[in-house]
Amino acid sequence: MFEASHLQHNIVSGYIQIVSGGHTLPAFWSHPDEGGTFPGLVMLHDGWGLTPSIRSQARRFAEQGYYVVAPDLFNRQVAESPVQTQALIAQAGEVALAQVNVALRALRTHHKCNAKIGLIGWGWGGQLALQAAVFHDDLRALVVFYRLPDDLPPAELRLVSGPLLAIFGAQDPASPPEAVERLRQALAGAGIAGQVIAYPDAGHDFFDDSRPAFVPGAAHDAWKNVLKFLNEHLEVPPRAAPGPSQSDPGDTA
After folding, report:
1. Other CB atoms closer than 10 Å to residue 93's CB: what's the count?
2. pLDDT digits (tens, 9 = 90+) for 62-77
3. What is the value of pTM for the model shown?
4. The domain that contains 98 carries what CATH number?
5. Which of 55, 84, 97, 161 is the most buried (most CB within 10 A)?
6. Cα separation of 135 and 112, whole Å?
7. How many domains is the chain built from?
8. 20 has which bridge partners?
């Protein structure tokens, strides 16, 4: 997807294996295909798994100048129904949080990452992102979609050091208005910089264009807000404009 307001990077994408402690973690990565270093972004999929939609989001962020790693927390399995999502989440268990840590470590130590790292998650992945942020004081930005952890007390929320952008659909039963308001108050009380956005006509999965719940207007606005937030806190390097002999994805000639 071409973003007319940004000069996009040419990218490389594909499946990888992250090796850590004698174990391997399957993942999808996408990054600019050029010299220099870039801010890193770990993306955590929702209960549907590492779907084509999640891989598409990884490519979109890479085009904007991020070095993206999306760990496959379901080990190459995807859900076809809500019942299967719950089964896969239960199967992942507490190991999933350790795998998030592995993905973050892989970015920190990668020579193409400039050590400015953000974390973004959808649904179940958003819950994991917030839980993981409690244990990582070097995260520069945190974005969560749809859901909040069920067991993150305010005292632990105060341990989140980086700014937070939380995005919800006001019609989503997984994030009722009272829970969203509690999050706003908790962030203010903890002195955490950030923003909480609830789209009035959107529900769960409104950002996923492969789902019936997709809401184009809310998804477009959320994308702009996420890019603005990440660019502000991760300081993505600008791409030089193409010269006379170069073509750009926005060329229409």
Report:
1. 9
2. 999 999 999 999 999 9
3. 0.87
4. 3.40.50.1820
5. 55
6. 24
7. 1
8. 23
